[in-house]
Amino acid sequence: MKKFNTIILKILKWTGITIVSVLFLMFIIPILFPGTISEQVKIFANKRLAGKLDYKKTHLTFFRHFPSLTVSVDDVLLKGSKPFQNDTLLAAKEVAAGINLKNLIFDGDIKIDEIYVTNAYANVFVNSKGQANYNVYVAKPSEKPKDTTASGTSIKLDLIKFKDCHIKYNDHAARVSVDAKGLNYTGKGGLSEDIFDLKTDLDIDKLDFSLNRVYYAQQKTLHADLITRINTNALTFVLRKNELRINKLPLKFTGDLSILKDGYNLNIEAASEKTTIRDMISVLPPQYLKWADDTKIEGKSDLFFSLKGRFSESENRKPRLKARLFVQDGFVSSGKAPVPMNHLNMDLNVDLPSLDTEQLMIDLKKLSFDLGPNNSFRAVVKTKGLDEMQINADIKGAVNLQTLQQALGLKDIEVRGLMDTNIRSNGIFSLDKKLFPKTKGYLNLKNGWLKTKYYPNPIKNISIVANINNTDGTFKSLGVKLDPFKFDFEENPVFVNADLQNFEDLLYKVKAKGVLNVGRIYKVFAKKGLDISGLIMADLSLNGRQSYATTGQYSKLDNKGTLILKNIKATTEYLPKSFYINEGQFQFENEKMWFRKFFATYGKSDFALNGYLLNTINYFIERKGTLHGKFVLNSRYILVDEFMALKNGDNTDQSLDVEYAKVENPKSSGVVIIPKNLDVSLQANAQKVSFKGLNLNHLKGLASVNKGQVYLKNTSFDIIGSRMNIDARYQDESPLTANYDVALKVQDFDVQRAYKEIDMVREMATAAKDVKGIVSVDYKLKGDFDKNMAPIYPSLEGGGIVNLRDVEVKNLKMLSAVGDNIGANAFDNPDMKGVNIETHIKNNLIHVDKFTFKVSVLRPSISGTTSFNGLLDLLVRVGLPPGGWIGFPIVVTGTHEKPKIKIFSKTGQGIIDALYNKKTNKVIRQERRAAKKTRRQQRKDQKAQTEKAKNAEKQIDKNLKEK
Where is the composition biased (Basic and acidic residues) (predicted)? Predict the structure, then answer.
């Protein structure tokens, strides 16, 4: 016993010594190595990170992530790589790197084998051009062979751990958005090996996933238990064990993924077998989950999914997607339902070769349910293609909507009525080829009634009797009858009767009558976008044939009636604000829809229209119809700035192109986007038009909008105290770029006022700051606008004449320098009255034709080239008395601010023009000084450049005459 006690004491003694030693080392190692480790980590970060890294404190400790020795960095902020260097990529309460103790103690090397990230926000972003903000890691140069004896910091990861993180991934190029909140991730494996198995444990509290702004997952919980074999040499991922759970739905994945030089190779299969309908419903949007909790749901379901093939953007190759959803013996019943939804069965197959919607195949082999005797629904639908779709459908059912609502336990909506439908369809649907499947069927609804929780009053007495018939598979035999469609809302009856025959040349008879409170009916459906007080009042009778209007047989049309809109709020996907139609009274007279009274506002702008739209019925019938019309437009004030696509406004439903451009260019205004489906002419009268601080008063002229372009003809307005006449054309190319042509004439304007008030004058005519007096201009220009709707000067082409009618030029540096060099002070104040200066612009250079003026008894003339950035290459000939027949040459180079003078010289130094890419709207090369050339070669180059500019000027005339 004594011997046993001795052994126990020794064990306790050595255990205590070991524990104390370990604790001592845990305290002493951070003290012995802190400078070395912190310095090495800082050097490593500076060498390997392209983004800016900021943090508050660093710690070296065993106790934060016991038992690992970690370098912990608190309050980390990492910026993205170019061009996102000002945007946050990662913000974290703590980022810690685990240090390999063996290498640290025995080799003195800092080997990082673990990464910990806590309370982090990661904002991963790819813009529309495919540029990513996460390319912050700078790889080691590969030119030199690896030095295995060198010491320093390296990464050889065995563990990655994220705790309580929020990760956002927005890919504008792929139009994908992922938002994962409450993310906890643990990845284990030899992450630095060439081939290793990565064991992953992932939990996400709330996951959102959308594609093309359509959400396929919202606020879903996700758990993943994965084992993935990764081959870093071939960049191949083999899914060995991959079990996911989305809410309550389990999914198992198998397959592999290879990352290629120009894309991916995919072979992935997923399945959720032998689950329940309730589990399947758990992946629905969150607003439906409370309904599922309160409803009895039974039945079996299976889900299969595969994605196989190669994705390559350069080769235009995409994988094939297949999916199948199978539901069997479904049963749905709420507590108050007199009859449950029984025998719910569905077999849905989807096949999408090459992810091409034109090859989309949908095979709904079965969809059926019963709601008691004589109350059932059956559907079989098979389609192939999209624009040219093969259809085979058989839909039949007689359903009591109130029984359906009660069986499903729908709480936010009450419906009543007997719906009966029987439709059979077989054939090809193609708008381009005017084909329609052979179809015979009807949809009837009697005694309909609809009420939601969003509005206290129901829509009552809903009656729909709709028949569709097609006998030969073409548009010609297609007939649709709506006799009638009627309902009562807010004690106002609405009635529509329509008989449409022969969709190749539509024969239509339509009657519509009623008063509809649009704001309130939209409240019934909890929809936003229309003003609460909006009203539509209709009393229409439309009777005719489509060809009567297109062939000018207007006397055969019998379209008449009125349509009145009041206080309607409307939006378009390209404008940041809403239009408010205060009042719109429209009268239909055969081919014309007259605007008798139309008053609308847009932000600070107001519009009154009087005129007509032509063939509005054809616009709604044609696949890509265009609205034609002629109007008189009157306005007190138009602020062009608030029409720019990226400006802030109340419209939250703008196009994806606009939305992405706004995110990627938050400080930009964008350009004004013109609708592509208008062909409208306007006689415009506006008291005041403002554009970027420039005020145009009393604007009058002809404007037209055609195929996304705006034309101004014989338009004039008051600007800087003078009357300007212009012809112009404008066209947007994207939310960020536009192009324009303009021919302008302005008589007798004040140079100094123009220089002070017009940015473009300051940019194009920097010498104007030294000029006082009255000038006239006759000029033509074309060019591009940038993302702030400012002119891109290297894009400008054109030319014209500036007439110096009554001017005073004092202390122009270039002329003063000439005077100083020849001893003629009169050059400080030359006489330029009545001088015409003709110039031509191209590629950021201004080519000046020869012009002559007076300086005391001298007759100098100037010709040559200058640039918008101030470079000079001018030839001045100073003519001597009498008459200036004899003279001597002077070359002026340098810049406007620092001119260089050479007397008795004809050899200047040319300027190489800028290069501008019209497709990308980018300046490829700025203008610069050329190598010294003979004057003869310079004249030859200048002649060629001037000829290009004159040709551009002729093209402007051609563009403006097109409309």
Answer: 939-963
Pairwise CA distance, residues 735 & 669, whole Å: 9
Token code pair at residue 934: 């003979």
Residue 530: which pLDDT band, with cuts at 50, 70 and 90? very low
Q: Can you list the alpha helix ranges (DSSP code H) found in 409-458?
A: none
Average pLDDT of every residue of the chain: 83
Amino acid at 57: K
Q: What is the pLDDT of residue 32?
A: 45
Q: Is the pLDDT of residue 154 over 50?
A: no
Q: How far apart are CA 135 and CA 129, in angstroms?
A: 15
Q: What is the DSSP string of 507-538?
A: EEEEEEEEEEEHHHHHHHTT--SS-TT-EEEE
Pairing of strands 153-171, 176-188: antiparallel
Find where tokens 């054109």 sit. Answer: 798
Indicate the pLDDT class of residue 572, thresholds 50, 70 and 90. Answer: confident
Other Cβ atoms less than 10 A from the Cβ of 371: the count is 25
| Buried b or exposed e, range 543-566, using 16+ CB within 10 angstroms | ebbbebbeeeeeeebebebebbbb
Q: Which two tokens stand for residue 920?
A: 């990308």
Q: Identify the three-state secondary structure at position 238.
A: strand
Higher-pLDDT residue of 238, 43:
238
User: Token pair of 725, please?
Assistant: 């006449």
Pairing of strands 263-276, 459-470: unpaired
Apex 864 CA angle, 858 and 868, nearest 5: 120
End-to-end CA, the chain: 114
- The C-alpha atoms of residue 560 and residue 593 are separated, in whole angstroms, by 9
Segment 161-216, tens digit of pLDDT = 889 999 999 988 878 899 999 999 888 877 667 777 888 888 999 999 887 777 87
pLDDT tens digit sequence for 704-726: 999 899 999 999 999 988 999 99
pLDDT at residue number 123? 92
Whether the pLDDT of residue 771 is over 90: the answer is no
What per-residue string of b and e applies to 246-285 under the rule 16 or more CB within 10 Å gives b? bbbbbbebebbbbeeeebebbbbebbbeebbbbbbbbbee
Contact 255, 239 (CB under 8 A): yes
Identify the burial level of 67 via C-beta atoms within 10 angstroms of its C-beta, where 0-12 means exposed, 13-18 middle and 19 or more buried.
Answer: exposed
Tell me the sheet residues that pair with 762: none
Scanning the structure block, which residue is given the tokens 């974290």?
Answer: 92
Q: Please tell me the number of Cα atoms within 13 Å of 575 on its side-chain side.
A: 15
The answer to whether residues 276 and 302 touch, using CB atoms and an 8 Å cutoff, is: no
Per the document, the length of the chain is 963
Pairing, β 376-384 against β 361-370: antiparallel
Q: Average pLDDT, stretch 893-914?
A: 88
Whether the pLDDT of residue 33 is over 70: the answer is no
Distance CA 666, CA 661 (A): 8
Q: What is the pTM of this model?
A: 0.80
Q: What is the reported pLDDT for 44? A: 60
Q: Which two tokens stand for residue 354?
A: 């090459």
DSSP strand pairing (579-589 vs 592-602): antiparallel
The per-residue pLDDT for range 635-687, each reduced to its tens digit, is 999 999 999 999 998 888 888 899 999 988 988 999 999 988 889 999 999 99
Q: What is the 3-state secondary structure (H, E, C) of 725-738?
A: EEEEEEEEEECCEE
Q: Is the separation of the CB atoms in 395 and 421 below 8 Å?
A: yes
Percentages helix, strand, coil for the chain (3-state, rounded to 5) are: 20, 55, 25
In angstroms, the Cα distances linking 147 to 102, 112, 144, 357, 496 are: 20, 18, 8, 53, 84
* Beta-carbon count within 10 A of 70 CB: 25
